[in-house]
Automatic annotation (TrEMBL):
PANTHER family: OUTER MEMBRANE USHER PROTEIN, SLR0019 PROTEIN. Residues 1-27 form the signal peptide. Keywords: Cell outer membrane, Disulfide bond, Fimbrium biogenesis, Membrane, Signal, Transmembrane, Transmembrane beta strand, Transport. It comes from Haemophilus haemolyticus. GO terms for cellular component: cell outer membrane. Belongs to the fimbrial export usher family. It is a multi-pass membrane protein. Essential for piliation. InterPro entries: Fimb_usher, Fimbrial_membr_usher_CS, FimD_plug_dom, PapC-like_C, PapC-like_C_sf, PapC_N, PapC_N_sf. This is Outer membrane usher protein HifC. It holds the Pfam family Usher.
Amino acid sequence: MRCKNMFFRRTLLSLLIGYFSLQQVIAKDEFDSDFLRHSEDDKNIDISRFNHKNGVLAGKYPADVYVNGKNKGNLSLTFAEQNKQVVLCLTPDLVNLLDLKKDAYTQPIEGDCVAAEKTLKGNFSFDTSLLKLEVNLPQALTIQHPRDYIPSTLWEDGVAAAFVNYDVDNYHYQSQGSRFEQTYLGIRAGANLGSLALRHRGSQYFFKEKDSLGNETSEKSHYSTSETYLQKDFATIRGLVTLGDFFTTSPINENMALRGIQVASDDRMLPASQRGYAPVIQGVANTNASVTIRQNGVVIYQTTVPAGAFVISDLYPSGSSGDLSVEIMEANGQKRMFIVPYASVAPLIRFGQFRYHMSAGRYRYGKDIYPDRVAQFSLQYGLLNNLTLNSGLVLHKNYQSALVGAGFNTPIGAFSTDATFAKTTFSNSNQTKRGYSLHANYSVNLLSTNTNLTLAAYRYSSKDFYTLRDTIWANHSDFIDDESIQYIENFRPKNQYQISINQSLGETLGSLYLIGSTYRYWNKTGARNEYQLAYNNNYKSVSYQFGFSQSIDLDTKNRENSVYLSLSIPFGEGNSSLSTSLTHSKEQNSVQTTFSDAIGEYNQFNYSLSASTNDRRERTLSANAYYRNNFAEYRSTISQDQDKNLQYSLGLSGSIVAHPHGITLGNSVSDSFMIIHAKDAAGALVTNTGQGQTLDYFGNAIVPYSTPYSINYAGIDPTNLPINVEFSATEKQVIPRANSISVVNFDSRINTMVLFKLRDQDGLILPMSAEAKDDVGNIVGYIAQGGILFANNLSKEKGKITVMWGMDSKAQCHFDYVVKLDKKSTEMKQIDAICHR
């Protein structure tokens, strides 16, 4: 028994010693460089640079930075060598990107390089292949922001550039010897310098008419300008300042055209989760709990909260109504639920947020600029989680108005209401009118019946309520008697009601919608009514719609009723379809059949062919075509009836952009857009647009839109390029300011691929992993198995390459080369060479 115990103890001791010895062995992976030796002289092979994770070398690297799994943006990272180790430097830009608190680091960020891992309690992992930095930090070290917060220091001004959007349309019509031709030109242009943007919009048209007797008339309009302004954003006021001719953007007051100045908040500067309206969720967790928020049965948010009171204020706004169901699941599995009312209505904003607008200047209408000076103010404030206060002012020497209102979110829907009180003075008669206007809006989504209801009502309850436009027109018109202002009276709304109902009938029964409106005017009897009722459904792949519409003319009191039925039948798996519509009204019965199709991988070409007829035996054939390529959009129409009346038109739209890399043609651009540039990469596909754009001959392409103050991705796909075209990266992030023109540069080059078969002067193979540099110190490759050096970035046709596998002079050799660098050739050149020690 004693022997057995002794054997057991010795065995256990041996196992423990072996276990702890194994832990020491596997604590650090090492590689014996002797495996790379090909001769006794290869004693100093240096592979120390590969001992560290990813083998990063000192230098600067553009990289995507992730903090605790969240993408924080792109930044140029600095790595430096300290004590024979390469460390990440904690620069001021990196501190800002990490949102570090001031007491998060133990020493000031000064000097050549402050090592991040020695200064911060966190983990830093850099992937050189993906150019990605992963940082894990305790939350106590960082400033807490909404989940998609982007610091204003990362907003990009863009480059100095200019653009012109053009839209040209030429229309012809000829009938029984008479002809009519009209040409329209629309311009939207701009120029940027830093964060300052100049924008302009205008148009001009020309028409020519010739009657059946040969008489010809023509007219060329003056160029009409609708907007020309300078605009700049300011992060400190979370808004835009506009100077020039513009349209006001008040969310409360009636907007107008001004020549002056405007200062207004811009919700796009907020994180996406803070834009629009969504309620703040508050609750209490008894343990570390999972909180799940659902709307209409769909999970829209989920997070984990610690024990105690919690607040969730970064819900994304929803485009539809529907109460929020909040579920709290405690650590022991216990679940609790509560409901938060939610319906999205325009005047509602989040708790604690505000929107403001201020503008002042001279009133504009069309091409006229009135001497009248106008000032406009509005303010919205989220007073409570479900209550928003609204206020507005309009000031003019002959007109003053004040608006007060509120928006409510309740369990039975969302309400908003406001009242405007106005005082109007007519200058010729010195008569003063005082009136008021009331407005109400209601919106609800009834989950039990799948009904979405929006009801809006406008009521002008006083004859003496006028708008600013009414006042200015009356005081500046020669033909209006401002004592009676009969002309204005006849066209001033008295009551206006609108209703919209969308009712889902289930997955197989389709949907029903109703839209209706009623308008009444002062000094006019009766009402102008418009209603539309429609039913939509589909049977397998065939979709159909049945509808009824009615309108009542205010002057004639005539009712115009119309009943229609439409069918759409797809052909195959492509985009082609055949549709037919039948319409019945008091005037006529008609039928129209249309075949349409879209061709191309990106639907670049669209066309349709139509034939229509009615019970008067009037027949018309028509065709439409549309084509889009890298440079513009082209459109055309043609039609002819049984009397050979002919109509045809041609249209062209696009943009011309001047930027630091040249002039580029493209599709129409928005106020903010991007230009991709990659030298020597003509033909590369632009990703992230879905339009099939490719880089032009000069390596440029226009991405016609970008979202201000948000992360935008710009990328290129080199798949269809020759194999010798190399990119340092194929996707980059851009965070543009409003109105910015961003140039996204991709480093690309065309390499001549050379394969060197190397031996030393003794005929021995060079060690694997040895580093090869050209005569200016650039790394051109590493020695592979069998003494092979694959060099694809030689910068000169003649030079010397040094191969190093250690710091000792005996661990180095060099050879001269002569090669013709042909960028057009994709063939690999093979050269045998002797490397001399």
